[in-house]
Amino acid sequence: MDNMKDFFYEESAEPGFGSEEMLIKALSAGYGTDAAQFTGGRALQPEDCETTLVNVMREDQSDFKLMNTLKKTPVKSTVHQANLRLDIGDEDSGFVSEGGIAPDNNQDIRRITRDMKYIQKRGEVTEQAVVADTFEPAFEAEKIACTLSTLRTAEKYCFHGDSAVVPKQFDGLIAQIKAAPAVKRNIYDMRGRSIQAEGESIFTRMAENIADQGGAANKVFYPLILGDDIQALCRDRLRFGIEDDRMAAVFKTYPTLYGSLSIADDAGPDKMFKPKGVVKPGGIIGHAGGIPNKPVSAALSAAASGQSQFLAADAGNYTYLVHAINEYGISEGVSPAAPVAVAAGDAVAITITPAATNPGTGFIICRSVKGGTSVMEMVRIGKDEQNTTTVYSDLNDNLPGTAEMLFITEKKMQTVVEFLQFLPLRLYRMYPTDRLVTPFIMALWGSPSMKAPHWCGVVKNIAYRGGLYA
User: Fold this and answer.
1) Measured between alpha carbons, how far is 367 from 372 in angstroms, rounded to an integer?
2) What is the dihedral of CA 415, 416, 418, 422, to 10 degrees?
3) Rounded-to-integer distance, Cα 146 and Cα 124, Å
4) In this structure, are residues 362 and 308 in contact, taking their beta carbons and an 8 Å threshold?
5) Which residues pair with residue 202 across a beta bridge?
6) Could you tell me the end-to-end alpha-carbon distance of the chain, in angstroms, rounded to an integer?
């Protein structure tokens, strides 16, 4: 955790200090039968494996690959403003006659703002746990657990955050790429094909697109479920001689004409990068408002559209399910009355009527494949605040039960992706009122930011094992 401490922590708020010695003691051979009288530990006892400190050994830096990649930039405002340079000028202009007038270098510079977002988690330790003679300090253990939980939240939503759906979230890197101007947007659509079926172009085409925009992609992040498919793709191109007796290789970089891509170790499979799967309702209960109420209804209608990506092979019946979502969790889903029949060239209009009270801030729309009954997440959208219903047009451009990959240019002349840090990860001790507990709040304030989204890219609609297009 040393790198994570350097990334976030102030010296005054180091969590788990001294816990290494306690862990060594816990795993050392000791003696005695009365746990209260131990002078050492007892090695390999099941109760020790349940402790937070052992979990810390499992929840190591590999859980926070993206947060370790993002460079820390301290900011002092709740709204950070910056200039985004999308183009350095037109390369086709500049020739003049002798003594001629030099044309302006027409750069594309845009002013952007990033709102700071606030991740906060409350923990507490009872006085009994503090007084009890355990092999680890109770407060330190709870502090480490809350630290890891906070960092896992930050890691996940640096990929998946979308303030249009849940306004209290920051926009993740994928949302920032998709929000870039169309001519500067690097998105490659796999259309439900697997990595094996697509072949090496899943890497080379995106690396080429980013290079064409002036970037140099060097890191790729993807859900764990895609890891075996990527390794199998690499092994298909491996050749052995008759003298070779090695086991199967594990590939950590993928070479392209535009530079090598890191696909493992400090990049590659990330535990917090999730594929689109079955949506599980639930969340935090007990807060004002709490989990949203499920939508009242979701109505379907199909009609021809010039933007439709429903082809002849896609014609058939489709089943939908809609959940409401807010910062506290996900509601139960509501199903339309019947599946909808879709012809080639159609688009499906989904008209969602939210609950009258606590309707949530957005919706998760789930869908089946043609003729299927199993549904998985397709897309997340924000709630229409101007009208009584929210309408989404399914053009078949976002496929349910698929995964995405994120390509980033880590740095060129300056940092390309960064974490604007309004407050480093810090622990605040709270005051107990009518209970003998030691409460505290772990806080991390900030927002990820892409200075050059056109130097990064997303591959979407990738089939994965267990998904709808497997």
Assistant:
1) 9
2) 80
3) 10
4) no
5) none
6) 37
Q: In the chain, what's the furthest Cα-to-Cα distance?
A: 96
Q: How far apart are CA 358 and CA 324, in angstroms?
A: 10
Residues 320-356 have pLDDT tens digits of 999 999 999 999 999 998 999 999 999 999 999 999 9
| Residue listed under structure tokens 């007038």 | 101
* Rounded-to-integer distance, Cα 265 and Cα 57, Å: 17
**What residues are paired with 303 via a beta bridge?**
347
Q: What is the DSSP string of 404-436?
A: EEEEE--BSSSBSEEEEEEEEEEEEEPPP-SSS
Quote the CA–CA distance of 189 and 202 in Å, as a whole number. Answer: 10
Alpha helices, DSSP H, located in 132-200: 138-160, 173-178, 195-198
Integer Cα distance of 412 and 418 in angstroms: 13
- Tens digits of residue pLDDT in 205-245: 999 999 998 899 999 999 999 999 999 888 876 555 555 55
Q: Which residues, 6+ apart, have CB-to-CB distance to 434 below 8 Å?
A: none
What is the spatial distance between Cα 53 and Cα 462, in angstroms, rounded to a whole number? 37
Query: Pick the residue with more confidence: 329 or 62?
Result: 329
What pLDDT shows up at residue 102? 82
pLDDT in tens, 361-403: 999 999 999 999 999 999 999 999 999 999 999 999 999 999 9
Q: How far is it, in rounded angstroms, from Cα 319 to Cα 304?
A: 19
Instruction: Give the global pTM.
Output: 0.83
**Distance, CA of 141 to chain centre:** 26
What's the whole-number average pLDDT of the chain?
85
Q: How far apart are CA 130 and CA 123, in angstroms?
A: 14
For residue 129, which amino acid is it? A
Dihedral of alpha carbons 301, 304, 308, 309, sign: positive
Pairing of strands 362-367, 320-326: antiparallel
- The token pair that represents 185 in the structure block: 């947007």
Helices (H), 61-137: 65-69, 127-131
